[in-house]
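Give me the fold.
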Amino acid sequence: MPMLKLTAKMQALAVCAALVVCAQGCRGMKSEWSPNHAIAPTADFSGSQITVHNIRNTEYRTADDYTVHHYDKTFDLQKLDSVDFIVVPFPDVPGGAHTFLSFGFDGQDYVAVSVEMRRKPGDDFDPIKSFTQPTELIYVVGDERDLIQLRTIHWMSDVYVYRAQASREQMQQLFTSMLKRANKLAAEPESYNLITNNCTTNIVRHVNEIAPNKVPYGYQVLFPAFSDELANDLKLIKIDQNFERTKEGARINEIAYRYRDDPAFSAKIRQGHTTLAVKSWSSDRAPLR
């Protein structure tokens, strides 16, 4: 009888252990992140060749109804000829905006890097929560049909694209720096913070790695809807006569809608544009110093 009792206890413990393992396994199989933030990008480096894994290319039916796809692609730094600074103001948040960068290769291939708050299913974008409910930071690497069209077509946000002024070497350093940070975050997650660790502060960090103290942390960084003005003041973007004219021409919503289904979307929205059709390293303004 004692042996039977012991066996029964062992069986009960085994069942409990199995339930715990099953519960852990089930949680592990079901991502805690929204589908478009579930997979973090990484990159491999080999000389001038950078292979980026998990580039996002989401097929949106609506902003909330979509199918996420990912692919891998190798980019040659020797073909990198442009960097664009993209500003998406928040209409209901004075001074608020999302900023990200897009890198162009031979004027044909474009890949964007967007630093974002990593969301869970059902979450809305609420950066204030970063003070009370910490969430991870993620570098989203995606094609522009995803990252731009989500904002122009489905969120109906104004999107402004500015051609950056930088040398070939600086562009290469910037792209490499952002992807190395993506690798680091995939291995060692960090928390998003509205003030110190967000989309714009990370771009500033990368720029200042290339040109130390080039971008000061002031109100135009804290309120990134004004960050394009700061970029102009620091001669970081190309200008069409003056800033007001440049900003007017930088809004791409209409042309993004016109070419929304075109396989050459990225090239078409820049074709013939006064500043976006110019290579970043052509010298009409002083390069980063």
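Residues 1-30 have pLDDT under 50 and may be disordered.
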